[in-house]
Each structure stands twice: as C-alpha cells, then as structure tokens.
Design brief:
alpha/beta, 7-stranded parallel beta sheet, single chain, Rossmann fold
Length: about 240
Amino acid sequence: MTTPRTVLVTGGNRGIGYAIAEQFVADGHRVAVTARSGDGPAGSFTVRADVTDYESVDAAFTAVEAELGPVEVLVANAGITRDTLLLRMTEDDFTSVLDTNLSGAFRVIKRASKGMLKARYGRIVLVSSVVGLLGSAGQVNYAASKSGLVGLARSITRELGARGITANVVAPGFIETDMTAELPEAQRAEYKKSIPAGRFASPEEVAKVIVWLAGDDAGYISGAVIPVDGGLGMGH
C-alpha cells in the first residue's frame, strides 16, 4: 500500500491531466489540480493558476498548502500546442509554447521544491511526449519544449537527488482523447500503422504509470524517461 501523499497536477481539468488526478484520488491521495478554467475530477481540490505567471503559481501553491498540506508529489502536465511549419511559425508561436510547457514546469517545480527540501521527500513527474525525442514536422516549438523537460529532470536529479527527491519524465504517445477522436478515420489508421502495439493508449494507461512513479516502489528511479507509447518511439 502506497503512503497517501499531497499531490498537485497542473492542467488537471481535462485529457491526460484529468485522468492522472482521477487515478491519484482513486488510490487514496489528497489531490489538487490547477486549471485556467473548468474543474478537476470529483474528490480533488481545484485552484486557478496560470503557469506562465510565477505569482499565480505561488498563490495556487499557498491555497493548496492551506487546504491539503505541503505538496509532496508534483505532476507538471500543463501544456499547449501551436502547430505550424517552421517557415510560418511566428516568434509568439514559439515562445508562448516554451513559456507554458517548459518555463511553466520550471516555475511549478521551483515553488514545489521549497516544501520538498524541508521534508527531505518529493516526487516530481514531468509529462513530456514521444514527440520530444522523436521530433515531428510542424511541431518545432512543441518538440523543443517537451525535450527540454528531459534536461530539466536530469539536472534536478543531480541537484536534489540526495535530499530524497526524484524527478522523472513520462513520454506518452498517441492517446485516445477528444483531440485524437476528431482526426479523420484515414489519418487515425495511418498513425496506428506506425505504432507497434497497433492502437492508441487510454489516458488511464498513462495515469497509472505516473501514479506508480510517484509511489513508494519507485524511490530509486530518477532522471528516467519512461515511454508510454506502444513502442512508437523505440530507439531514442
């Protein structure tokens, strides 16, 4: 049985983030989610936060600490896409994606690390993407932000590893979400051909890996990149 922890999932109001928060709740943890709009699953505590603004992040953590106690598990999941080909990509398309996906992770980790250092315990899980290491045409900004999370996790591991804090990256592949459901059937079939498992993952399959990484059994894993992609990204 894993020790109940105080967990914060950023971007926990939809998609993979919602499934992650739901799984932590089901496993008996105290769960908070940040969201710019909407709410997390039943049994979770939702706080408004914008990860591009440190003051907003700080206020969200203060609210969570007052309600549930210091954050022991942080899942940095908030992310955006602005897909377009390199020559059409504006400065803002590039910097806004990095500011949310990479700098946003830095801001929440920096704030969470204060309590983790004091407790000499912490689990940090960064939600990346198969695209972070595989690359993807039309996603120069997104791929750069998602591969940057690997350097972030590995540097944190070297810096804070001796204080009982782990930092790992989970890299999902194609997941059954609202976004993939909207793809034309021919395109879905084409994508599935490139996946050795021959199917997309459910959000719950990603969530369960993250919950395990954050638990008591994974205390000696840090700086790892764990793919949940049906074999799509093999050979990184």
